[in-house]
Specification:
This protein folds into 2 domains: about 20-145, 3-Layer(aba) Sandwich (Oxidized Rhodanese, domain 1); about 175-310, Rhodanese-like domain (Oxidized Rhodanese, domain 1). Residues about 1-20 have low confidence and may be disordered. The protein has a 5-stranded parallel β-sheet with strand order 1-5-4-2-3. It is about 30% helix and about 15% strand. The chain has about 325 residues and is of the alpha/beta class.
């Protein structure tokens, strides 16, 4: 009886770990083999958005069977201040329904810029409770797909609209107040060493050399790892797990810590979230989605290396 109970415990633990929920990074070869799978939706989130989601723009090509969403109209709340906020539940439900996704859909998302825009959509889907086992990011996106010589077409996939309803939430987003409380004002007035604030913007934005808001610089106590350093520049694929572990680990971004991540407007931070949580296995990662666009404009919030915007950026 004792050994039977032990055996059952081990089996239950194995079952739990083997079915752990995770967004998967898939290769171009995998997608090519599954292009026509029933229940698979392929979504493109290009950097240069087409005028209206679902509207074809002549000369713009995509992976076959793709639907296209507009990063700036579909993946933010355009009525909010700042507009970098994620869409509301109603906006998200309407988007999913309009591009033919239902709760049972397996969704592969890609873009043409290192996966940062695709990651935003995937994280929003996770936030609104879509089963992460059904969410996939195409490694290298359209750039690597094209380098492989795989087909690209102008035609969008035919869409049969669905009725998508959010029935549960899996919040991954924090607010500026969470960052201020935990990073700026910790219980003893010291930095909370269990939480790492990760700024994944390019270094020149972090230092204030390049200013994209009313103020340049970074949130106090933030460390900087440029998120796209995780990708190979020539084909946009991700570097190996060992390389990624070194890139982030050297700055103290390791398992066993809580990571708060931010960027300029919520795209790069989603990209970092997927790397940290689903490749490096850091369980507790949160996204400050409104990021620097919001923090810099709340003038009462402190900024390290603060530089105010003028017509000429600092040299």
């Amino acid at each position: 009886m004792k050994y039977t109970r032990y055996f059952l415990t081990i089996m239950l633990l194995f079952a739990w770990t083997s079915t752990a929920s995770a967004i998967e990074i898939v290769e171009a070869d995998w997608l090519k083999a599954h292009l026509n799978d029933k229940g698979l939706r392929i979504v493109s989130v290009p950097e240069k958005a087409e005028a209206i989601s679902g509207e074809h723009k002549k000369g713009v090509v995509h992976i076959p069977n793709s639907v296209v969403v507009n990063r700036y109209l579909d993946l933010g709340n355009i009525y909010s201040v700042p507009p970098t906020q994620y869409p509301t539940k109603d906006q998200f439900e309407k988007l999913m329904s309009s591009i033919g996704i239902d709760k049972d859909s397996t969704v592969v998302v890609y873009d043409d810029k290192y996966g940062i825009f695709a990651s935003r959509l995937l994280v929003i889907m996770e936030h609104y409770g879509h089963d992460t086992n059904k969410l996939k990011l195409l490694n290298g996106g359209q750039v690597y797909w094209a380098k492989k010589g795989y087909p690209l077409v102008e035609k969008h996939a035919d869409i049969m609209q669905t009725r998508y309803f959010v029935t549960k939430m899996n919040p991954v987003v924090i607010a500026w107040s969470d960052v201020y409380r935990d990073i700026i004002v910790s219980p003893e007035g010291e930095k909370n060493k269990k939480i790492v604030l990760l700024d994944v913007r390019p270094e020149d934005e972090y230092t204030g050399k390049k200013i994209r808001s009313i103020r340049g610089g970074h949130i106090p106590n933030a460390i900087n790892v440029t998120g796209t350093d995780a990708n190979n520049k020539e084909d946009h694929t991700f570097k190996s797990k060992e390389e990624l572990k070194k890139i982030f680990g050297e700055k103290g971004v390791t398992t066993g810590k809580t990571i708060y991540t931010y960027c300029h407007s919520g795209d790069r931070t989603a990209h970092a979230y997927i790397i940290l949580k689903y490749t490096l296995g850091i369980e507790d990662v949160k996204i400050y989605a409104t990021s620097w666009t919001e923090w810099a404009t709340i003038l009462s919030l402190p900024v390290e290396g603060e530089v105010w915007y003028t017509e000429k950026e600092p040299k």
